[in-house]
Specification:
It contains 14 helices and 17 strands. With 454 residues, the chain is of the alpha+beta class. The chain binds adenosine-5'-diphosphate (ADP). Adenosine-5'-diphosphate binds next to strand 7, strand 10 and strand 13.
């Protein structure tokens, strides 16, 4: 049970007054929690069966605009309903809010009660099921990096997002002194998540002013994505409760390092790490090599799932620990893929391409699909790259713009076969819309550069 409360436990806590509110949440395309706050009595009596939401929740952008061009829903189709089906194995307390519990939902078709194919949980479950059919469990960990700012979201918005001040005045990578000053936010974050059944390993300062990292213990892929989503949400809410803002925008300033979400991956069989082979120099099994070969070959196909906005691509720059090359190396942070735990049972591959804005369900699903293809085709892994990979001229590049990644997504036969044409068409439209919106807007940079001098 990935949650910490059974439905019976919840009923008992509602009866004794411990819980009065249940957050009933689905995950949208952007990886956000969307849903309703139920009076707990109503939830335990009725709504635990199912509730509803407008089906535009899987067809909006960050600002809840309603772009055209989606086959699944539209103004013409009348924006009907989805069923929100609570997954009762995910019930957990929300310790940072008084008297509150949470449940995650699957989104189902209103008429057929079939899973909505492009809903992020369904997209991931499909790849997990493919692996299960092959006898494997994917064990994953997604790191969360973000920036803490001195002021709150509301103050910052009212001031036009100008003169942003991170919470610290210097690069705080591994700093205990500076991170002590941030404990008002970070300690409740660790403890509340832990109490909600999310196995927090640690938090640490990251390599920029005001930058933080949260590490959660690896878990089966769906649990990992649920943990990531709830942890990101909690980070914003707990920061807000302390008058601060937490931003997962990958690149909030061109002179600052960006925020990533590295994804650690290993496959297990019968409870044992199937990526480990003690006879190999690096401890890598043949299975792991095939998986990694697929992961690397198809990186351009799925880059959009790791970097879904215009801003995401500002992160990919030389000398910032954000990778620009789709090669692998052994414990080397300049490559797109890093072998970690070599020679041990913890041997795993870390994909370093993803930004802090990735949707963990979609990102993991796409990478698992690539790895499965590598296994199916018994693809051969090229030797590791050594040294500073930024200067490895022959190494293939990660798509460097949203436009380029949209086209590699659209054209990906591998992803179309693994996820379905309808799913890829849906997310390609999502990617296009983001670019269309950006292209429409005149930016501050253009004004400052050209207003007088053009
Ligand atoms: P880093 O140096 O990148 O911070 P860590 O040792 O802190 O590396 O581990 C990073 C993440 O990798 C953690 O979330 C951890 O739970 C996860 N991890 C450890 N072993 C495995 C494994 N076998 N498969 C997947 N993830 C793992």
């Amino acid at each position: 049970m990935p949650g910490t409360l059974s439905f019976e436990d919840l009923k008992a806590q509602v009866k004794d007054g411990t819980i009065d509110t249940v957050l009933v949440c689905a995950v949208d395309m952007q990886g956000r929690l969307m849903g309703k706050r139920f009076h707990a009595a109503n939830f335990v009596e009725h709504s635990h069966e199912e509730t509803h939401c407008c089906n535009y929740l899987l067809a909006t952008d960050l600002e809840m605009a309603t772009p055209d061009g989606y086959a699944s829903t539209s103004w013409r189709a009348g924006y009907g309903d989805y069923v929100m089906k609570p997954d009762l194995s995910t019930i957990r307390p929300v310790p940072w809010l008084a008297g509150t519990a949470m449940v995650l939902c699957d989104l189902l078709d209103h008429h057929t009660h079939e899973a909505v194919p492009h809903s992020p949980r369904a997209v991931l479950k499909k790849q997990v099921a493919r692996l299960e059919a092959m006898g494997f469990t994917a064990m994953m960990a997604t790191e969360l990096e973000f920036f803490l700012f001195e002021k709150s979201f509301d103050e910052i918005r009212k001031e036009g997002f100008r003169d942003l001040q991170p919470i610290s005045g210097y690069n705080e990578d591994y700093h205990i002194l500076q991170t002590t000053k941030e404990e008002a936010v970070m300690r409740p974050l660790r403890n509340c998540l832990y109490a909600a059944g999310i196995p927090v390993e640690n938090t640490k300062g990251e390599a920029e002013t005001g930058q933080e990292e949260l590490n959660i213990r690896y878990a089966p892929a769906l649990d990992c994505a649920d943990h990531h989503t709830i942890a990101k949400h909690a980070t914003k809410e707990i920061a807000w409760a302390h008058g601060r803002a937490a931003s997962f925008l990958p690149k909030w300033h061109h002179d600052k390092v960006g925020s990533s979400s590295h994804v650690h991956q290993s496959l297990w069989k019968d409870g044992k790490p199937a990526f480990f082979d003690g006879d190999d120099d690096l401890g890598m099994s043949e299975l792991m090599k095939h998986y990694m070969a697929g992961l690397i070959k198809y990186a351009p196909d799925y880059t959009w799932f790791l970097a879904p906005y215009v801003n995401s691509y500002k992160r990919f720059s030389k000398g910032t620990f954000a990778p620009t090359k789709t090669v692998w190396s052994v414990d080397n942070r300049t490559a797109g893929f890093r072998l970690c735990g070599d020679g041990t049972k913890g041997v795993r591959v870390e994909c370093r391409i993803g930004g802090s804005d990735l949707n963990p369900y979609l990102a993991q699903a796409a990478m698992l699909a690539a790895g499965i293809k590598g296994i199916e085709d018994e693809m051969e892994l090229a030797p590791p790259t050594k040294g500073d990979v930024y200067d490895a001229e022959k190494a293939p590049d990660v798509p460097r713009t949203l436009r380029a990644a949209t086209e590699t997504l659209r054209a990906s036969e591998m992803l179309r076969a693994a996820m379905g044409d309808d799913v890829i068409d849906h997310y390609t439209r999502c990617a296009e819309w983001e670019q269309e919106e950006f292209d429409r807007v005149v930016t501050d940079w253009e004004i400052a550069r050209g207003f007088e001098r053009a």
